[in-house]
Amino acid sequence: MQRRVPSLAFGAVALVAAGALAVGVAGGCGANGSGGEHGAADDGGRASDSTVADSAPSADASRPADASPPADTGPGSDGSLDGGSDHAAKFPVKNVIFFVKENRTFDNYFGKFPGANGATSGRLCDGGTVPLAPLLDRISPDISHAWEAALTAYNDGGMNCFDRITPAKHPDGTPLSYQVADPADIPNYYQLAKTFVLADNFFSSLHGPSFPNHLYTIAAQSGGVEDNPAGAKADAAPTPKVAACNSVTSCPDPGEAGLEPEDVPSLPQKKGVWGCDADPKERVAVLDQEGEVVEIYPCLDILTLGDVLTEAGVSWKMYAPTAGVDDAGFQGSAGYIWTVYDAIRHMRDSEAWKEHIVPTEQFAIDARAGNLPSVSWISTPSVVSEHPSASTCTGENWTVSLLQALSAGPQWSTSAMFLTWDDFGGFYDHVAPQQIDAYGLGFRVPLIVISPYAKSGTIDHTKAEFSSVLRFIEADFDLPSLTDRDKNAVDMTQDFDWTQSPVALPQMQQRTTTPAGDAGCQTY
């Protein structure tokens, strides 16, 4: 099946496979666009002070685009780290936290933020414009944000066809995708953005939805995946099985994708499981080496940052929802679909799964006790994810509770949290992402950098993406790159001042109602 691809008019680079510790895609990061009614900014949306300038490496536009995916290369002996190297943190940040929430664009949450490159009106596919409607706390139906929907909205860089991806309307009659938050809708996020660093030129890694973008947050590639698993298919051919892994570094058929581990029982759900314990007839779309879309079982075997951290002796955990719970949220999975290490065979089918993947609730316990590892990922239960139809107010409250636990513990002084959202969720954004390869970049998403060392009150205009957070971790702990995505990404150190007086977490109050009087904001 041939695949629809974005125009590469904004710059393109080739995909390459370069060994176990450098497998993936080459390129820099996105480009500014222009759009309606930017808040209090000049020079194309740049604030005149308290900002960080654009300093990301540029893509090599002279290199041809190649539709081949990164090679699925599992951990092995090639490119091994020097066991004698010192991988202690070289920055004052000794505890890095990559916190990934769900389904928001920059304009959707921060289109009104003073000095940022935001928009309060949006372009339509017929050439018209509409004011962005007030943000709804709970949004239904979920707006399509699959690969095809993203390319439709993108419209070869026009950023004007978000009205074509859903027929649903806001109560005021505006297409449902066109919404913007008022500061009162997300007061604590605004407070965090004012206190620390807000990035307004930060992009998701790939056009489309959660599953491939979450893979980028751990691997700086998606293993060729471009969409979410589509659910169990009754007519799917039998899934090839593979024998059990002996350990995290010793699995049969290393690097081979689409195999079902014999010793990992499939969960009973027919949807809501996106990994190596999915229904045997579950399938996900992957771009193969010939540029064709094929459907495989959603169990990959690519190298991840967790592998590199383990080999270097750097502690890490993913705090994430566990299987077997249905919270009536998105896909009835309680957020287990976003526990992305479930899709990495050598992790899911080895001792690493129990050692490194722990319940989300453990984060607050570890943070208060000072037991956080050097590197943490946080993935969210669906009820607090802010993924429609979950409450934004409830999700913000939960975020606040985790930050307050971190601030109350002894590791606040050595921490940096990168708080972001995984994909565009179908919401409008006016900035066209640069197309650096066959996968993306995807649309802008918010990023707040929260740390005692974060440059207080700064808006960062530097072009960056999810792989940039991995690059920060690699720079801090002297680790090699995973792919050319993280190798060429800006390392986010522009957001820190190691000599400043430490910045404290601001006072924040959890809410029980929204500005519109909607009750039911759960507190934590």
Structure description:
- It is built from 11 helices and 21 strands.
- It has helices spanning 106-110, 147-154, 187-195, 210-219, 305-312, 345-348, 352-356, 362-369, 392-408, 466-477, 484-488, and strands at residues 15-17, 23-25, 51-52, 95-101, 121-123, 129-131, 133-134, 179-180, 197-199, 202-203, 241-242, 260-261, 284-287, 293-296, 316-320, 357-359, 375-379, 415-421, 447-450, 458-460, 464-465.
- Helices cover 17% and strands 14% of the residues.
- The model is unreliable at 8-51 and 54-79 (pLDDT under 50).
- It is an alpha/beta fold and 524 residues long.
Stretches with pLDDT under 50, minimum 5 residues: 8-51, 54-79
How much beta, percentage-wise? 5-15%
Number of strands: 21
Strand ordering within the main sheet:
3-20-9-19-18-4-17-15-16
Q: Describe the sheet with the most strands.
A: 9 strands, mixed
Helical proportion? 10-25%
Rg to the nearest angstrom?
A: 21 Å
Mean pLDDT across all amino acids: 86
Distance between the termini: 47 Å
Instruction: State the helix count.
Output: 11
Gross geometry: globular
SS class:
alpha/beta
